[in-house]
């Protein structure tokens, strides 16, 4: 019972307030207050059509509140980079590099020179479970949108056919690599807010069936996409070798899979990962995940409570997923090594707080988030009202891709 009475952080979901305080001491600033302002900047850049943010005023608040803290010139550098003010962006990054020390707990967020060059990287399949699972990074476009690069997870089934989960943009070389693995039979996009590359992937691999999730029919940007089928727990797509489960009770509209032969859990926007020292996660992905409360762990970003519709149903769904047998976790917003081993045990530990959370606790997290981000609530409600009256093509709210 003690765990259910923990006073929880509303920003770093999964930590309690004493753990957040300890993190503040290690980092040297009020990390919750920092994150609230960073979130506004990210929204201002990437969801300007949904949430109205004065980015420059927010940067001014950051400078006033956290003078001399390296994350401030770092977010300035990022904003300037998005605005294509490259020289000013480089100067801001240089200021951040002067201020950070290598042993600072957040130093891992800093971009390497190669990352900061934003040069397109060669796409190549990475074999992560021998003969069974590969990963394909979806690179960012030059304007940094989609801002969070994602991974496709590619599974070769025992019959030699190939399934691509979360297909993103694919180079001709990557498509040839996929076809060399075997006959690509299915492109599966099992999460509602991923929609940008579905049609492009279907055109690139027309021999594959294009499978969406029921939420794609509700979300304006994906309503018109021609899917061959939508996922349904009543008729699982690959009952012989995959577990499949829709996560109910949340607007995420996510369907989770587990490839039994390789013991790999495959999920998308359900959780984000941000692991200090992980080699295969981009600068923007690290920075975004940190801003939304993920530091050196895997879990729910702090805006997720606003998407919870039925707490009981969602918890039951999560419990079922956690009852599956898996060792590895293929996240789309996080590298393969985000959890290097025994993923089920780590997820059980990291989600225990959620499984213990009562309805009032969930409402408290929602309320605290809205209290700290009042403009988000206002714009979110406006978006929902507008969405209910319009049938075509407003932008999606959510992580995008
Ligand atoms: Fe996403």
In terms of topology, how is this protein built?
Elements: H1 17-27, H2 31-46, H3 55-65, H4 71-82, H5 86-99, H6 113-117, E1 126-129, E2 133-138, E3 150-156, E4 162-165, H7 172-181, E5 184-188, H8 198-204, E6 209-212, E7 229-230, E8 242-246, E9 255-259, E10 264-267, E11 272-274, H9 283-291, E12 297-299, H10 311-322, E13 328-331, H11 343-350, H12 352-355, H13 359-372, H14 374-389
Helix pairs in contact: 2-3, 3-4, 4-5, 13-14
Bound molecules: fe (ii) ion.
Describe it for me?
The chain is of the alpha/beta class and 401 residues long. It has two domains: 25-117; 126-359, 4-Layer Sandwich (Metallo-beta-lactamase, Chain A), CATH 3.60.15.10. It is built from 14 helices and 13 strands. The protein has helices at 17-27, 31-46, 55-65, 71-82, 86-99, 113-117, 172-181, 198-204, 283-291, 311-322, 343-350, 352-355, 359-372, 374-389; strands at 126-129, 133-138, 150-156, 162-165, 184-188, 209-212, 229-230, 242-246, 255-259, 264-267, 272-274, 297-299, 328-331. The strands form three sheets. The chain has a seven-stranded mixed β-sheet, covered by helices on one side. Strands 8-9-10-13 form a four-stranded mixed β-sheet, covered by helices on one side. A two-stranded antiparallel ribbon has the order 11-12. Helix 4 (71-82) packs antiparallel against helix 5 (86-99) and helix 13 (359-372) crosses helix 14. The site of fe (ii) ion (FE2) has 7 residues, from loops.
């Amino acid at each position: 019972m003690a765990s259910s009475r923990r006073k929880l952080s509303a920003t770093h979901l999964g930590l309690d307030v004493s753990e957040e305080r300890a993190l503040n001491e290690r980092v040297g600033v009020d990390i919750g207050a920092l994150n609230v302002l960073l979130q506004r900047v990210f929204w201002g850049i990437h969801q300007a059509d949904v949430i109205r943010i004065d980015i420059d005023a927010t940067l001014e608040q950051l400078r006033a509140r956290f003078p001399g803290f390296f994350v401030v010139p770092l977010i300035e550098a990022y904003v300037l980079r998005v605005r294509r003010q490259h020289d000013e962006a480089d100067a801001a990054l240089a200021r951040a590099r002067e201020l950070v020390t290598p042993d600072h707990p957040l130093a891992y967020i800093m971009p390497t020179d190669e990352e900061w060059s934003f040069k397109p990287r060669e796409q190549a399949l990475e074999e992560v479970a021998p003969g069974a699972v590969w990963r394909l990074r979806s690179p960012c476009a030059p304007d940094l949108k989609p801002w969070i690069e994602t991974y496709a997870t590619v599974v070769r089934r025992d019959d030699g056919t190939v399934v691509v989960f979360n297909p993103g943009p694919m180079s001709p070389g990557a498509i040839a690599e996929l076809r060399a693995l075997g006959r690509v039979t299915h492109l599966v996009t099992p999460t509602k807010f991923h929609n940008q590359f579905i049609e492009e992937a279907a055109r690139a691999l027309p021999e594959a069936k294009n499978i969406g999730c029921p939420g794609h029919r509700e979300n304006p940007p994906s309503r018109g996409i021609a899917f061959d089928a939508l996922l349904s727990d009543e008729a699982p797509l690959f009952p012989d070798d995959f577990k499949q489960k829709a996560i109910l009770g949340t607007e995420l509209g996510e369907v989770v899979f587990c490839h039994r032969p390789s013991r790999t859990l495959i999920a998308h926007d359900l959780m984000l990962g941000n692991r200090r020292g992980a080699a295969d996660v981009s600068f923007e992905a690290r920075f975004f995940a940190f801003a939304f409360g993920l530091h050196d762990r895997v879990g729910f970003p702090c805006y997720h409570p606003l998407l919870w519709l039925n707490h009981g149903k969602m918890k039951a769904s999560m419990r079922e997923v956690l009852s599956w047998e898996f060792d590895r976790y293929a996240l789309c917003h996080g590298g393969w090594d985000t959890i290097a081993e025994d993923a089920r045990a780590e997820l059980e530990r990291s989600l225990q707080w959620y499984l213990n959370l009562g309805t009032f606790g969930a409402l408290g997290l929602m309320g605290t988030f809205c209290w700290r981000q009042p403009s988000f609530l206002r714009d979110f409600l406006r978006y929902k009202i507008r969405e209910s009256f319009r049938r075509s093509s407003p932008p999606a709210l959510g992580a995008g891709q």
